[in-house]
UniProtKB/TrEMBL annotation:
The keyword Transmembrane applies. It is a multi-pass membrane protein. SUPFAM superfamilies: MFS general substrate transporter (SSF103473). The chain crosses the membrane at residues 12-36, 48-68, 80-98, 104-128, 135-154, 160-181, 202-219, 239-258, 265-285, 291-315, 322-344, 350-369. Coiled coil: none annotated. Keywords: Cell membrane, Membrane, Transmembrane, Transmembrane helix. It is found in: Cell membrane. This is MFS family arabinose efflux permease. Pfam families: MFS_1 (PF07690). It comes from Kibdelosporangium banguiense. PANTHER family: PURINE EFFLUX PUMP PBUE. Its main location: membrane.
């Protein structure tokens, strides 16, 4: 370890690079609700057809993140992030100019793959900072704020310039990222030890994927549940979900504070348990007040849990492979979650949907907590 460079502090440049990667990696999952209407309107697509395009992009992101995890554990993260950005800009540009559904799908797949590469590099870079907990928090909070701004901007762009304008806006937003990702902390030199040889447990990745599927599945139909089951108006549901999204940021501070006092294992167990109950209440209790409270609690727990999962993965393997692989697993769960969630909701109703969400969360908790115990003691 003699002569090794010290881990960089999380200053403005490093923080901006981490936020850029986290934002790009979550673009598809978080912006799809505002991208889908534009795609469907321009190409006269059914919900099934537009949903397939969305799924192809999300799965491309997930597979690219997982596939790049090992490469992201080695030096050269800024370079591979740049390659990912080239693919992303080309893909969004192709989707914007697409004359038909086939080119639209190809553009989304290319963009999704590029986003996954950037995401893997950024998530792996968390482990190269001097404070992985703070790095995780900065990436998650900053990414959330950027996505929130784009959720507002994209519909405005579509209204002003047409149904595919959102893709052009996203391509333009990626251009500053070429400069920002240059500050991504690089991987440790091989002389730092065998950390890069630590295997990523498959059950851990499956648990993260299952959690991602339950959260995205519940979030995708949260408005449907609020209107159809809790008896709220569409406007009221939108306000509730906006409040919950903003309140979720409190989960980052709560997570850091509680983890320092009671330990990671206890706080992760508490977050998973409360989140599972909150998802059950949202679906199974036909009350607007219960819906509001459960939505806020759920999002706070989800954000806190996400920070802890990234921090645990960073502690387990300083090469960054665990964090990148966890990001890929989360992306796969996010991409696959809505389809089975919709089928369960249609087939068995809201109360059964809530019960399945709670049980799936409990199942995911077992290997997740075992991994936390093994890593953190």
């Amino acid at each position: 370890m003699t002569g090794a460079s010290p881990a960089p502090a999380i200053g403005i440049r490093v923080g901006a690079a981490l936020v850029t990667g986290a934002s790009l990696g979550n673009l598809g999952a978080n912006l799809m609700p505002v991208l889908l209407p534009g795609m469907a309107g321009r190409f006269h697509l059914s919900n099934t057809s537009s949903g397939m395009v969305a799924t192809m992009q999300l799965l491309a992101t997930a597979l690219a993140t997982l596939g790049t995890a090992s490469r992201a554990a080695r030096p050269g993260r800024a370079r591979i992030a740049t390659f990912g950005l080239v693919a992303t800009v080309a893909g969004f540009g192709l989707a914007f100019a697409a004359p038909d559904l086939a080119i639209l799908t190809l553009g989304n797949i290319l963009a999704g793959a590029g986003l996954g590469v950037v995401y893997a590099a950024a998530m792996a870079a968390i482990t190269a900072t001097d404070d992985t907990d703070r790095a995780s928090a900065v990436a998650v909070v900053g990414g959330t704020l950027v996505i929130a701004a784009l959720v507002i901007a994209l519909p405005e762009a579509n209204d002003a310039w047409g149904g595919a304008a959102g893709f052009a806006v996203l391509a333009a937003c990626c251009l500053p990222a070429f400069w920002l990702v240059r500050a991504l902390p690089d991987a440790a030199e091989p002389s730092h030890g065998p950390a890069s040889e630590v295997p990523v447990p498959v059950v851990f990745l499956l648990a993260v994927a299952l959690l991602g599927a339950t959260d995205q599945g519940a979030w995708s139909y949260s408005a449907v549940l609020g209107e159809g089951h809790a008896g709220m108006s569409a406007g009221t549901v939108s306000v509730v979900l906006s409040i919950a999204s903003i309140a979720s940021l409190a989960g980052v501070g709560l997570s850091a504070l509680a983890a320092g006092k009671v330990g990671r294992l206890s706080i992760v167990a508490a977050f998973v348990a409360v989140e599972g109950i909150a998802k059950l209440v949202i679906a199974a209790v036909p009350s607007g007040a219960a819906y509001l409270a459960a939505a806020i609690v759920w999002q706070i727990c989800f954000m806190g849990l996400l920070v802890q999962v990234l921090a645990v993965a960073a502690s387990a393997d300083r090469s960054g492979r665990w964090v990148a692989a966890a990001g890929g697993a989360l992306a796969i769960g996010t991409g696959l979650g809505p389809a089975p969630a919709g089928w369960i909701l249609d087939s068995f109703g809201a109360p059964a949907f809530g019960l399945v969400l709670a049980l799936a969360t409990a199942v995911a908790a077992v290997p997740l907590l075992r991994t936390v115990r093994a890593v953190c003691g």
